[in-house]
Amino acid sequence: MTDTFGPSAPQADPPPPGTAFGLVGLDRRVIWQSDPQMLDMLTACAPEPCDAERVAQRFGADRMSAALQRGWLQSPDELCRDYHLVSGEIEITSHCNWGCRFCPVSMDPKPPRTMPMDLFEEIIAKLADVGTIDYVTFQHYNEPTLDKHFTDRLEVLARHRMQLALYTNASALTPDKIDALRRLGVLRHLIVNMPSIDPGEFAELTASRSYPHVVRNLEQAITAGFRVQIVVNGAGERLARNLEGLTRRYAPLGVEVFPSLTCDRAGDGPAEYFQDVHVDGQLTGCGWPVHHANISVTGDMFLCCNDYYQRETFGNIRDGSIHDLMTSDAAVRLRRQVFGVADAAAGFLCRRCHNQQLDFPAREFRPIATFG
C-alpha cells in the first residue's frame, strides 16, 4: 500500500493455521479467512452485479449473509460510499517561489492566494472530528513556508492535537519557523524537496538561486532534532547521481534520502516527464480518493493530489461536515468512476494517471476482478 510517505504494509497479525486468504479493509487492517469458498464467491461477484438469490444458491445463504454483514458484498447502489481518511491535504497558499522543471508550476504558475485563517480553523476542526486523521499537510504545488499565517496555523494544529507532515523546499524555513515547530510539537515529519547537491544543477532544476538558504535552513532543522526526509526528484541517470550525492552528504546526519516518483501529474506536467497514459474501459480503483481529503485554498474539496487544476471537485468545506461531503452524491459519483462502477468520461483525470495501470509497481491494490 502507499501513503503520502511512500510504501507501507497493511496492519495484520500473523495468519493462524488453516488461513486461506486475507482481506484488507479501507482501514488497512487484514482480516484472515479460512474458507476458500468465500474468496470464490467474492471473485464471482466482482466483475458485475449478481443476483443475490443465485449467489445464495451457489455459495450458501450463510456465507453470503456473512459477507453482506461485513460489507464485502454490497448493493451496487451503495458501492463507493465508504471512505477512511488518514490525512487532510490543505492548500494553505497557491504560490511557490520555485519553478521546478518536473512540476506543473514551471509551465503554468497559479496566481498567489492565501487561505483565510477562519476558513483554515474550520477545516482543522472538521478534520479533527473525523477521528481517523493521522496528519495534515499544507501543500498542493505550493511552498507552505511563504505563508504569512504559518505560525498561526501551527498554533491551531496544536490546539486540536493534529500532526503536520511539512512538505517544503526549505528556502523560507527560517529559524523562527523552526522554533515554532519545535515549541508547539506538531511536526510529524519534515520532507524537503532537494533535487541536487550541486549549486549550478540545483539552480537549473528549480529555477531558483536559493541553494545557500536551503542548505542553511535544512541543517538548522536537522540540528533541531526533527525527523527529516530529503526527496530527490528526477529521472534516469541524473536522478541516480543526485540521489547518491545527497545520500552521501546527509545520511550520516540521520536524514532519510529517497527518490521521488517523478511523473506527469495525469498529463498536466512538463513534457520532459510525459508518460502518455490513457486508460480505456472501466477504471480499476485507487486509494487516494478514499484515504486523503484534498482541500483547496478556497475550501473546495477535490479528488486527488494529481489534479493540479482541481477539476474534479465535489463540494466546499463550508457546506457541511467532512462526512457529509465525503458521502455526498457528488463525491460518490466521482469515486464510482474511479472504481469502475460507473463509466468514466473520456476526459476524466484518472484516465491519464499511472495509478490506473495494472502493471504500475506502486499500485495500492489490484481489484479482484482484474485477476484471471
Give the topology.
Elements: E1 2-3, E2 6-7, E3 21-24, E4 30-33, H1 36-45, H2 52-59, H3 61-70, E5 87-90, H4 117-130, E6 135-137, H5 150-159, E7 164-168, H6 175-184, E8 187-193, H7 199-206, H8 211-223, E9 228-232, H9 236-250, E10 256-259, H10 288-291, E11 292-295, E12 300-302, E13 313-316, H11 322-326, H12 329-338
Parallel strand pairs: 5-6, 5-11, 6-7, 7-8, 8-9, 9-10
Antiparallel strand pairs: 1-2, 3-4, 11-12, 12-13
Labels describing this entry:
single chain; two-stranded antiparallel ribbon; 31% helix
* Average pLDDT score: 94
Number of helices, counting only DSSP H or I runs of 4 residues or more: 12
Low-confidence stretches: none
- This entry's quaternary arrangement is single chain
Total number of strands:
13
Series of H and E elements: EEEEHHHEHEHEHEHHEHEHEEEHH
The rough form would be described as globular
End-to-end Cα distance: 22 Å
Write down the Rg: 22 Å
Q: Helix amount, in percent? A: 25-40%
Enumerate the strands of the largest sheet in spatial order, edge to edge or round the barrel.
Answer: 10-9-8-7-6-5-11-12-13
Structural class: alpha/beta
- Sheet with the most strands, sense and barrel status: 9 strands, mixed
Query: How much of the sequence is in beta strands?
Result: 5-15%
Notes on the protein architecture:
- Residues 90-231 form the Radical SAM core domain.
- This protein has twelve helices and 13 strands.
- It is α/β, with parallel strands linked by helices.
- The strands form three sheets. The chain has a nine-stranded mixed β-sheet with strand order 10-9-8-7-6-5-11-12-13. It has a two-stranded antiparallel ribbon with strand order 1-2.
- Strand 5, helix 4 (117-130) and strand 6 form a beta-alpha-beta unit.
- Helix 5 packs parallel to helix 6 (175-184).
- The longest helix is centred in the middle third of the chain and has 15 residues, at 236-250.
- The radius of gyration is 22 Å and the shape is globular.
- 35% of the residues are buried.
